[in-house]
Amino acid sequence: FSTSCSFDFNADNTMMAWIRYDESKVSTFSFPWYKGSHPSKEQYAEYPGRYEYKYPMAGTTNSTVSVQTFDIKARVIRTMKLPLEADSYIPRIRFTSDPAKLAVFTLNRHQDCLEVYMANPRSTECKKILRDNVDKYVSENVFKNLAFYPNRFVLTSERDGYNHLYLYDLNGSLIKKAVDGQLIVKSFYGYDTADGSFYFSANPADDPMHTAVYRSDSKGKIEKLSAEEGDNSAIFSKNMKYYMNVYSNIRTPYVTTLCNRNGKTLKVLEDNQALVAKLDGQHLGTREFFQFTTGEGIQLNGYMVKPADFNPGKKYPVVMFQYSGPGSQQVLDSWGTGSMGGTLYEQYLAQQGFICVCVDGRGTGGRGTEFEKCTYLNLGYLEAKDQVETALYLGTLPYVDASRIGIWGWSYGGFNTLMSMSEGRPVFAAGVAVAPPTCWRYYDTVYTERFMRTPKENAAGYARGPISQADKLHGKLLICHGTADDNVHFRNSMEYAEALVQAGKPFMMLPYNNRNHNITGGNTRNHLYTSITNFFIENMK
Predict the structure, then answer these.
(1) Helix extents (H) in 158-281
(2) Strand order in the sheet with 113-119
């Protein structure tokens, strides 16, 4: 739920509240520790150790949650009388401007019903003030953008198909809808209580690649404040009179300016010209956006990085990169675009003679809930089809060698790499899956069940995955995974490797000792990217 803080103090600092997690019935997961290096775990120099922690996998028992308060003067702990259904979540608690009102946000296990309670921290009584039923699931973006003001609070919701802003009083009565239409709110920056204006970043549903900073005034008139087209975000002053605008596009490193609340630039704080000058001497290739329509009539957005010495009369191998997870976006007109940002790894591959491509398929964000949630209960099916369709489209281009198209990704991108290479249409010559989930039964309850419900409710959806489709794998495959990955457990790659062995499918595998999901430490990241590069060179050049 995008938080690591489960406590808060009330407005007059007389009470503290927290969420209590009872993990006693949650099963334990463990993985081995070795001595390793960078850092070295000397305590395991002779015998390996083991790390154990509570990890509820899809369909299993979660923590039991409750809300407690502590009266600082009386030194009394109380438990709120919250009418919480079994297996429900409490993703946030926040004290309001009223010291006697604690807002408690709850979600059912299906995560499609958000309820807000006002709890009295002393009497422990709880009153439901708001219920927001959303089709399929409530996005975690709701909790990241939650904000409280004197006697009011702002909540985002996708109840009408697009992420919009709503202003409520502390009784749960809707005061106004601050954003409407096909504008999709990404980040909420603040509400000016003096003039009733809302400040936020958003993109139009028909233009998911560009993000701007906006203001919605007290009458609902929406004005775009950022001037440059690309990716814009803001950091506002507490009084909402000034903000720092951070702008970039796929060719321009971040530029930070100080602006007034009307969007007028007062000063350039950082233009990154030293980086621009450094990059000018790197013989970088062209970066361009494109669109195409799949065989199913779905229009998809992508970007392409071509070698600096690109020759349209030559046939090039292609390396496709993607993430593809629900609500994610990779195809953005932003300097952060690419597997390393700045499309710098893609530029390195382009210098090795590859064209690099990334396409956001169905299930990704920025286009509204209909496009984003169409993968519900069936993760990997439509996402894989769209990457295969991308390869088929690229194969029609006169400068692409259709027999030399590869694909790779990390985490969910690794999962969809395997799904795409096993989709049934043999379009990929090679692929690299880094830290891939290979069976959603192995992943945690909150994330997995948000999109898949439980294995008992959705047996068919859980049955489809890389392991069950191992016999359909086509193309050379490299799997990379950290042995101490506490997010996507190394178990995923090991069980998938066994399925490949039994299916008679050759593959290569690189385990990284004691590395977590980020696979870093010492020379590790350099070794990983060098191995990925060499694998594509050896199998597609």
Answers:
(1) 273-280
(2) 89-95, 102-107, 113-119, 126-133
Instruction: Using CB atoms within 10 Å of the CB of residue 330, give its burial: 0 to 12 exposed, 13 to 18 middle, 19+ buried.
Output: buried
Contacts for 52 with CB less than 8 Å, ≥ 6 apart? 28, 29, 30
Question: Does the annotation count 411 as an active-site position?
Answer: yes
Strand partners, 434: 410, 480
CA 306 centroid distance within chain: 27
> Please, are residues 473 and 503 in contact by the beta-carbon 8 Å criterion?
yes
Q: Which of 216, 248, 339, 411 is catalytic?
A: 411
For residues 240 and 224, the answer to whether their CB atoms sit within 8 Å is no
Task: Find the catalytic residue in 468, 517, 527, 531.
Answer: 517
Pick from 414, 409, 427, 437: nearest CA to 494: 437
Helix (H, G, I), strand (E, B) or coil at 531: helix
DSSP 317-352: EEEEE----TT-----SSTT-SSSSTTHHHHHHHHT
Instruction: List own/partner pairs for 171-179 with CB under 8 A and 24 or more apart.
Output: 171/118, 171/129, 172/116, 172/118, 172/128, 172/129, 172/130, 176/220, 177/220, 178/154, 178/216, 178/220, 179/216, 179/222
Beta strands 102-107 and 113-119 are antiparallel
Residues in Cβ contact with 520 at an 8 Å cutoff, skipping those fewer than 6 apart: none
CB 233 within 8 A of CB 201: yes
Of 159, 163, 165, 88, nearest to 128 by C-alpha is 88
CA distance 160 to 182: 10
Give yes or no: 517 in active site: yes
Chain segment 416-474, per-residue pLDDT in tens = 999 999 999 999 999 999 999 999 999 999 999 999 999 999 999 999 999 999 999 99
| CA 243 – CA 201 distance, rounded (Å) | 12
Question: At CA 127, angle to CA 125 and CA 131, rounded to 5?
Answer: 150
The verdict on whether 485 is a catalytic residue reads: yes
**Tens of pLDDT, residues 502-536:** 999 999 999 999 999 999 999 999 999 999 999 99
